[in-house]
């Protein structure tokens, strides 16, 4: 887990306050490298692994699930000069609205019945240049989302709440 400030500090208190819970808007899995993303209504999250049917299942666990902010999709589209984006083209597993996903880095959080831990920013890959066009990689920088490890498995569903738990 990333280094958090001491619990008695003002910064810790600020970092642990969220104005509201979020919501899962979309779920997708990537069966293999370069394969089209498969959109789902629900999927099984395996503790210490990944999502059923995703290429990262059984991997290191640090990238068991990738999340991206729903509110960032229009911004990425505008910066890439494309009319609109579907979540599948960005190749993340969950699109989440209402809670700043990057602020969950280093913390544990619950998505429905699943407990995740934010491990690292999910930076764009070179594929975004081909997908979004020239400058697509840079259009997505800073808005690529979050990688998370699955601490407690279960079923993830579209519509599930996303709630901060803590350290």
Question: Would you mind describing this structure in some detail?
Answer:
The protein is α+β, with helices and mostly antiparallel strands. It has a single domain (19-158), classed as M1 Pyruvate Kinase, Domain 3, CATH 2.40.33. Helices cover 16% and strands 32% of the residues. The chain has a 7-stranded mixed beta barrel. The radius of gyration is 15 Å and the shape is globular. The termini are close together.
User: pLDDT under 50 segments (min length 5)?
Assistant: none
CATH homology-level superfamily:
PK beta-barrel domain-like
Biggest pleated sheet: 7 strands, mixed, barrel
Evaluate the radius of gyration.
Answer: 15 Å
Question: What structural class do you assign from the helix and strand content?
Answer: alpha+beta
Gross geometry? globular
- For the record, the CATH class is Mainly Beta
Strand content: 25-35%
Mean pLDDT: 90
Distance between the termini: 9 Å
For the record, the CATH architecture stands as Beta Barrel
* SSE pattern: HEEEEHEEEHHEEE
Topology (elements, then pairings):
Layout: H1 10-15, E1 22-29, E2 38-40, E3 42-45, E4 65-69, H2 72-80, E5 94-97, E6 108-111, E7 114-121, H3 127-132, H4 136-140, E8 146-152, E9 154-157, E10 161-166
Parallel strand pairs: 4-5
Antiparallel strand pairs: 1-2, 1-5, 1-10, 3-9, 4-8, 6-7, 6-10, 7-8
Quick recap of the structure?
This protein has 167 residues and is α+β, with helices and mostly antiparallel strands. The chain has 4 helices and 10 strands; from the N terminus they run αββββαβββααβββ.
């Amino acid at each position: 887990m990333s280094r958090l400030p001491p619990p008695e500090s003002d910064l810790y208190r600020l970092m642990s306050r969220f104005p509201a819970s979020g919501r899962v808007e979309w779920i997708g899995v990537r069966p293999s490298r370069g394969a089209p993303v498969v959109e789902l209504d629900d999927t099984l999250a395996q503790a210490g692994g990944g999502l059923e049917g995703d290429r990262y299942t059984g991997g290191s666990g640090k990238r068991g699930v990738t999340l991206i902010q729903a509110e960032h999709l229009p911004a990425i589209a505008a910066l890439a000069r494309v009319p609109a984006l579907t979540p599948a083209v960005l190749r993340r597993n969950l699109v989440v609205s209402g809670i700043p996903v990057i602020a969950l880095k280093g913390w544990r959080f619950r998505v429905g019945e699943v407990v995740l831990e934010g491990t690292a920013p999910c930076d764009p890959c070179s594929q975004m240049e081909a997908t979004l066009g020239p400058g697509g990689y840079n259009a997505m920088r800073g808005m690529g989302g979050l990688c998370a490890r699955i601490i407690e498995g279960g079923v993830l569903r579209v519509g599930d709440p996303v709630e901060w738990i803590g350290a």
